[in-house]
Amino acid sequence: MRKKLNILRIAFILVISLGMTACTEYLDKEPEAEISSTEAFINFTNFQGFTEELYSLVPDFTSAVWACNWLFGDEALNSVGGIWVNDQFDKGNFWGWTGGSAWISYLDAGSVSNNPESTFDKGLWPNSWYAIRKANVGLENLEYLVDATDEERNLIEGQLLFFRAWYHFQLMMYWGGMPYVDHVLPSGEPVDLPRLTYQECAERAAQDFRTAADLLPVDWDATTAGQLTQGKNQLRITKIMALAYLGKNYLYAGSPLMNKVSTGSATYDAEYCQQAAAAFAEMLQYIDSGESFVQLVDSTQYQNLFFTDGGSEIPGWQEAVFMAPVYSSWFKGCPWGPSSIFCDANIGGGYVSPNARYVENYGMANGLPIDDPASGYDPADPWSNRDPRFYNDIVIDGEQVIAGSAPADKEKYRYVHLHNFNNETQLGKSSLKSGRTGYLIKKLTPMTANDVDGFPNNYMHVAYMRLPDVYLMYAEAVLHGYGSATASHPGYITAEEAFNVVRTRMGAGAIDSKFVADMNLFMSEIIRERAVELAFEANFRFHDLRRWMLAGEKKYLEKTAHDFDRDPNTGKPINMKERVLVTRPFEAKHYWLPLKISDVTISESFQQNPGW
After folding, report:
1. Runs of H (alpha helix) within 363-506
2. 3-state DSSP call for residue 591?
3. By CB atoms within 10 Å of each CB, which of 32, 90, 321, 466 scores lowest?
4. 8 Å CB contact between 247 and 276
């Protein structure tokens, strides 16, 4: 086993001794608060200790709070009366990201935190600015790295450049074009931070990602410097990560929303898409050659990508291109942790349900969407012959949800009741209980995450970027860069072939030729495939719908339930109807999150996003 929970918490070699304490004034600090001398930079060991704080600033979004508070798109909805950030977003209140107490999420923790043992206090907004400053401090002190080999210098510089670009990119995805801060801002002086257009900012990030990729190895274990931590290097920044984010940065810059705010044209920019395809192709060829440990797992191991079932190995490391470190697993075996929020309310859960409209993205085993006349979908038997990921991700009525023995008062819940015959389930549709949409989520937790089976020692850890995401982004970049699903970046596979790498490894059926022949139809399948493969992970969906400029369409604004009866003879659903539970408000301003009032007053050129 290459990744263990007890060995992959990023260590601070010199952080404490060098006084690297976080501060709320993350853009404007006294240099003495950062550096007391050049001692931190004179050799590789010291400089790497300085650099590793950049890892500890990355939020772990799934464990930042004890609720499903990271799905901001149309994937799911919480129990009635929720007060979390995703509930606020469902009401159109994007100011909710800046809230405190119960609204807190991985976007804002109020102040900077580099605590390697805490998951609660890492906010993306404050930590990103602090990390950008820290990366710049390191880059401006590279001249002091005299006791080091060329390889060691490259490793340090590559990490610093990657993180400077990565944290800028994270800010851009949520808030749009930012100032690209590439030097240490002077302390105690007025700061002028003009916001760049999205594409201007992306160009600057691309330079850093590209240089980082040129400096970094494919695998730290293959380097001399990496031998000291042999077998424990999988979370360290590599050429694979830098190339993947270089491609994603270009694809986002070329997407309709980003192109519109920069140029006024709500279309794809073909040149940016070609640059994205080139970066993805370069990265994927290292995967194909086997030079990287990052590889797709087969369908029998798919479930292991998202949670452990009592083991100690970090879930998903095989396919993770980039993930946060494991700071702590406070909710392992805990009935109050994220592991419990997905299970039935009657056995200790009762918080979140998948949007029934979203569940319709899961097609048939032959690869066709359920609304295709040739798919074989039967409304009288709607859960048969579906995409295998449907059964991996979604709990349906009558499915077993208790594994072990149960007391008499809980035994009746061994097979979940999500239909209208059950009065308690009906109560659940209108109260704080789960199952209000006719489905539950099981992708991220084992069956035994309930109060009957005792919430075993499982652990959920979801990546910021997973390898299937890269294949699908490559397919999208080629489609819009070269104008066809049968096109390719020169020397690499076609968009169709990349798409099918993801689809067929799960036995989900290759894409039908009629979708390949039509550019718009192929894009519709990319949209659906990303919804299925990346369901309930990170905020892929939230960003996708916005960058495609689809977030304001009615079908993505409505969150629904499937009401149905259970046939007493067959156990199958009958009389199924869709009912709208939530319609999310949407205006043009909702394409971007608002900036904090306290931050837009830093300078006149650091302006608020339109409409806020």
Report:
1. 388-393, 408-411, 423-430, 467-482, 495-504
2. helix
3. 32
4. yes
CB 515 within 8 A of CB 521: yes
Report the C-alpha gap between 372 and 395 in whole angstroms: 24
Domain ranges, ordered by start, for the chain = 14-70+105-216+586-612
Rounded to the nearest 10 degrees, the angle between the axes of helix 44-51 and helix 124-140 is: 160
Convert the pLDDT of each residue in 24-45 to its tens digit: 344 444 444 444 468 899 999 9
SS3 category, 606: coil
CA-wise closest residue to 174 among 276, 96, 77:
96
Q: Which tokens in the block code for residue 126?
A: 């404050």
Contacts with 89 (C-beta within 8 Å, 6 or more apart), sequence order = 72, 96, 584
In 272-400, where do the E strands start and end? Answer: 320-322, 352-354, 394-395
In one-letter notation, the amino acid at residue 168 is H
9 falls in which pLDDT band (50, 70, 90)?
very low
* Euclidean distance between CA atoms 560 and 384, whole angstroms: 21
| CA 141 to mean position of chain CA atoms | 32
For residue 490, with 0-12 CB atoms within 10 Å meaning exposed, 13-18 middle and 19 or more buried, which class applies?
Answer: exposed
Q: How far apart are CA 319 and CA 532, in angstroms?
A: 16
- 334 pLDDT band, cuts 50/70/90, is low
Q: Residue 299: pLDDT above 90?
A: yes
Tokens linked to 384: 């048969």
Give the three-state DSSP class for 320. strand
Strand partners, 582: 559
Mean pLDDT of 124-141: 96
pLDDT-based confidence at 61, cuts 50/70/90? confident
Q: Identify whether the C-beta of residue 205 lies closer than 8 Å to the C-beta of residue 180.
A: yes
pTM (2 decimals)? 0.93
Q: Which of 75, 446, 457, 462 is nearest to 306 (CA)?
A: 462
With contact defined as beta carbons under 8 Å apart, do 108 and 126 qualify? yes
Which residues lie below 8 Å from residue 590, measured CB to CB, with a gap of 6+?
92, 94, 551, 552
Please name every residue paired with 466 in a beta bridge, in sequence order, or none if there are none. 320
CA distances from 155 to 184, 492, 597 (A): 21, 28, 38
Task: Using alpha carbons, select from 15, 16, 27, 25 the residue that is nearest to residue 51.
Answer: 15
pLDDT for 119: 76
Asked if residue 376 lies in contact with residue 383, where contact means CB atoms within 8 angstroms, the answer is no
Query: Rounded mean pLDDT of the chain?
Result: 88
Q: Percent of the chain scored above 90 by pLDDT?
A: 70
AA letter at 259: N
The C-alpha atoms of residue 415 and residue 523 are separated, in whole angstroms, by: 38
Cα separation of 268 and 254, whole Å?
A: 5
CATH T-level assignment (fold) for domain 14-70+105-216+586-612:
1.25.40
